[in-house]
Amino acid sequence: MLGFQYSLTYKKGWKGNMKKIISGMFLQEVLLPAIGYDTGIGEVVVIQPKQLQQMFTGVIFPREEIHLYDGVNGYIFDAYGVAFVYSFEENETSLSFTKQYMNRQDSIDYHFNKKEGNEWIGTFNGKATGAGYSSCVINVVSDKFLDSSRFADIPLPPTSVNYVNIT
Question: Do the bridges between strand 108-116 and strand 95-101 make them parallel or antiparallel, or are there none, so unpaired?
Fold first, then answer.
């Protein structure tokens, strides 16, 4: 359990618009310590730039129909935690949004201006993260996609998990 709690506030007359699933990756350059070799000294600690690839996924809600807190359009999960999505804009030639992790004050701006098929290619930039590259896909899904009640009549396969009764 991630400990992520949210409340959905539906506007009057909500029609159940489609939601968007966003999935992607970002490349972030970091400096990591490593072991190097100096002929006069032997083994030494060196700092090497490395590019880390991280995956993310999330849900974007139709702005005019639903919102989480003030101005939030959705949320994204990645290796660094849960982030709210603000200022989500998508048209034929560009996609942009701002991401802010729940446990941080800084934000990260994403801008995508190149589209290859259904894949967006672009960059991100934040004061704490610096700049890097990102790509993502957006898939439109119906409201049923996130409705857990539709699984009620599907039996789960047998499991080998041994549950312990704690008394």
Answer: antiparallel
Q: Domains of the chain: which residue ranges?
A: 17-34+44-146
Phi, then psi, of 40 in degrees rounded to 5? -85, -20
What's the topology of domain 17-34+44-146? Lipocalin (2.40.128)
Q: Hunting for tokens 């982030």 — which residue is that?
A: 83
Query: What is the per-residue pLDDT across 63-93, written as a single tens digit (0 to 9) for each?
Result: 655 555 666 789 999 999 999 999 899 988 9
Length of the chain: 167
Which is more confidently placed, 167 or 86?
Answer: 86
Q: Which of 27-31, 92-96, 114-118, 141-145 has the lowest mean pLDDT?
A: 141-145
Contacts of 115 by beta carbon, 8 Å cutoff, 6+ apart? 93, 121
Chain centre to alpha carbon of residue 40: 47
Question: Which DSSP category does 92 fall into?
Answer: S
